[in-house]
Amino acid sequence: MLESYFAPNPATTRGQPVRLSADPTGKQFVYASGRSIVIRSLQDPSKSREYTGHTQATSVATFSPSGYYIASGDIAGNVRIWDSINDEHILKSEFRPISGRINDIAWDMDSQRVMAVGEGKEKFGHVFAYDSGNSLGTVEGHSKVINACSMRQQRPFRAVTCSDDGTCVFYHGAPYKFNSTLKEHSGFVMDAKYAPSNEYFVTAGADKKLFLYDGKTGDLIRQVAAGTESPHTGSIYAVAWSPDSKFIVTSSGDRTCKFWDIAQDKLVSTVQISSTSAPEYQQVGNLWAGEHIISLSLSGDINVLQMGNERPVRVITGHQKAITAAALTPSGTLYTGSYDGKLCTWDFTGLAQAVEGPKNETKPEDMAASSDVVAMGFIDDAVRFAEASKITGASAGLSSAPVSLAIDKSGTTVVAALASGELAVVSRTKVTKVAIKGEARAVAISGSTVAVGFADHSVHLYQLQSDTLVATGVSMTANTREITRLAFTPNGQLLAAGDAGGKIVVARPDTGETVTARWVAHTARIYGLAWSSDNQHAASSALDGHVIVWDIANPLRKTLIKNAHLGGASTVSFIDPQTIVSTGADGGVKVWTI
Q1: Which residues form the WD repeats (predicted)?
Q2: β-strands 236-241, 314-316: how paired?
Q3: Are 546 and 522 in contact (CB under 8 A)?
Q4: Which of 56, 148, 438, 480 could staple 76 via S-S, CB 3.0–4.6 A?
Q5: How far apart are the C-alpha atoms of 449 and 463, rounded to whole Å?
Q6: Where in the sequence is the domain holding 272, given as residue range(s)?
Q7: Is residue 244 situated within a structural domain?
């Protein structure tokens, strides 16, 4: 049973705006991340739910005005409309209005009509009925990809779209049809939003300008604060209205957010997200829902803003990409690393904390924890060490990337299997290569006993003596594919070996005798293996996305968590004998009770 879900942060692409949408109550918001759609609480961002109905990478999601449905789009042009209230998220309808990426979705006031826009071949958008898919208008007048759309929430119905062709198009409805082209911008137009009062709409562009229009006629009223002394110096990617329609907030590539008073036509305040020029602090999306104001960084960080404050009042960090490595310390802190090199820690009571230290953009292949020292192996051929959420040092360079790590109890010695098939003993000061026969693929350690899994599907046992390994002569040969993961029980009396075919074999490391070879429920490569502190249960995670808990006393009994992670479950650990934590390619961290 899922106890907690710590969601990934929104997916971002440089130069492309990101859409965030809040429900009518202003208590939760929704966004796209990987192949999932995440529904997240604005009041407590540690509380989230996910929707996994898309088969392609998702691009946008929007609440209906009623709050009962969410329309979500993906990069293939599919729009799925589904129930937002129940955890089952029952699908209401699915359509493919355009042939390319869906960039934005808007609903009308009745939650009946949906406008979807983006990339396409024959057209860049469409208006249709949410239940039947019947056409309720045409989206035309643009020659390039449409970035955003917004629909007036009262009669007479109106809508506006904006595009890379430098124009906005105003529509009358319903049915929605072309009325006029708005040509005030001189570059890509990134966003267009109707005010909650429906009296106005505002557009924002790469030309760093904002224009205010009459919401009913589409006539230009003025450029917003045209004479301000401190305008944006980068593209404006997103704009959001205050609930009372008196203010707007803009998010820009210049790493700032600005609050504007529409009635008095002036700049109110500026929020500096970062004083550095790093592109990761570019602001690419925002949302103003009730008392909650957030802006999204290119890095995926969610910045909580307050009008009048020059800095974000809070920053919500997390992963955007697949989590490829994780390790749980004895004190209960989970370290995670994602494909883009981002490192986080979790204490399971709230949100992630970024690991401090030198900036890293290389993929972590594996992690191992002992006491409160965590060893991390990266694809740049290095092992780094962390303590108390800080990188505290790095090893000398290795001959290739460490793909599997095991660390001794003292936290000073690491055994590493390298991508080249070599084996090395690593400390903070030196690296010692170990002569072995075969290609090493996985390692585990218990006391001074080291298990090494090989590409020829065998496991051999060694003794760690100073900086080298001495063979004991004990081996396991019951696996049938390349060994991918090894794990000792806490008492060191059993060793589990997972392979590339999804099979797990448990044996005695002192004799090599097989205890069970019947753990064969996975259908793909084993990524993670862990034992409970009472030595009675093992948990496994695999490429098939499932997490399974096994009982050594009754090898045929198992608890299957089907499709725990979309795209594959990368790691699993026991928090206590009844609770496990898993990570996956979806970028999420999930805590399960068994």
Answers
A1: 51-92, 182-223, 229-270, 316-347, 519-552, 562-594
A2: unpaired
A3: yes
A4: 56
A5: 5
A6: 2-316
A7: yes
* Phi/psi of residue 275, nearest 5 degrees: -85, -10
Mean pLDDT along residues 518-545: 98
Question: Has residue 411 been placed in a domain?
Answer: no
Domain of residue 89, CATH code: 2.130.10.10
Nearest CA to 286 among 325, 260, 324, 323?
260
Strand partners, 132: none
Q: Which residues contact 358 (CB under 8 A, 6 or more apart)?
A: 391
How far apart CA 420 and CA 439 sit, in angstroms, is 8
Residue 395 in this model has a pLDDT that exceeds 80: no
**134-177: per-residue pLDDT in tens?**
999 999 999 999 999 999 999 999 999 999 999 999 999 889 99
Show Cβ contacts of residue 469 under 8 Å, excluding neighbours closer than 6 positions: 415, 423, 425, 434, 436, 450, 452, 462, 463
Q: Say if residues 542 and 499 touch (Cβ distance below 8 Å).
A: no
Whole-number Å distance between alpha carbons of 158 and 108? 9
Helices (H), 369-413: none
- End-to-end Cα distance, the chain: 7
Owner of token pair 């249960």? 537
Tell me how far apart the alpha carbons of residues 61 and 104 are, in angstroms, rounded to a whole number. Answer: 8
- Separation between Cα atoms, residue 37 and residue 293, nearest integer Å: 20
Nearest 5°: CA angle at 326, between 29 and 424?
A: 155
Identify the three-state secondary structure at position 179. Answer: strand
In this structure, the dihedral spanned by the alpha carbons of residues 403, 406, 412 and 416, taken in order and rounded to 10 degrees, is -30
Are 19 and 31 contacting, i.e. CB atoms less than 8 angstroms apart?
Answer: yes
How far apart are the C-alpha atoms of 167 and 156, rounded to whole Å? 23
Q: Is residue 267 part of a domain?
A: yes
Q: 45 lies in a domain?
A: yes
